[in-house]
Design a protein that fits this description.
alpha/beta, 6-stranded mixed beta sheet
Length: about 180
């Protein structure tokens, strides 16, 4: 059985590989050579064309309780109660709240890096590309953050594609 640290690194690498594949396909550019970094740097580094790019990886679960359920962890009383209380909040509202909270938390970090992109992989089985594509212009992205771009991989496998969250594409911001 993997330690939680090994599992976290494996999930980050998997998310980075999926993102790189999707980005290459969407924009016809080459991304390659990833490696894991120490905590002062973003999680993963790679090359976009000939330039180094650092990726901070995050997974969107909705809540800690949902993350435990999705990751197959043993659910104890408090976790089960938290899941039940979440069901009172509409799914679309939870999506925006979870994304805003995740981005706000990551925005408070600082990195020893010149170029950092935040890559969020949706791990929540009830949030689909259609809902995710409606969110960029609704997000409350902090005015100050270390990210040149913020991207969302719409599902765990990458089948649903990429959603740009920041900067918001002009066709989305005018919707």
């Amino acid at each position: 059985m993997k330690s939680s640290s090994e599992e976290k690194i494996a999930l980050e690498h998997q998310a980075a590989r999926i993102f790189m594949r999707l980005y290459q396909h969407k924009f016809g550019v080459k991304m390659q050579h990833i490696w894991h970094n120490e905590p002062a740097k973003p999680d993963v580094s790679c090359y976009l064309e000939q330039q180094r790019l650092d990726l901070e990886i995050a997974h969107l679960y909705g809540s800690e309780a949902e993350a435990m359920k999705i990751l197959g962890r043993e659910l104890k009383g408090g976790t089960q109660e938290a899941l039940q209380s979440l069901r009172q909040c509409p799914l679309a509202d939870r999506l925006l709240l979870a994304l805003d909270k995740l981005i706000s938390n990551k925005a408070q970090k600082s990195y020893d890096s010149e170029r950092v992109w935040l890559v969020i992989r949706n791990a929540h089985p009830d949030w689909h590309a259609q809902e995710l594509e409606q969110t960029p212009h609704l997000l409350k992205i902090p005015a100050q953050h270390p990210f040149e771009q913020i991207w969302l991989v719409a599902d765990m496998t990458g089948q649903a594609g990429l959603v740009p969250l920041f900067p918001v594409p002009t066709e989305l911001s005018q919707a």
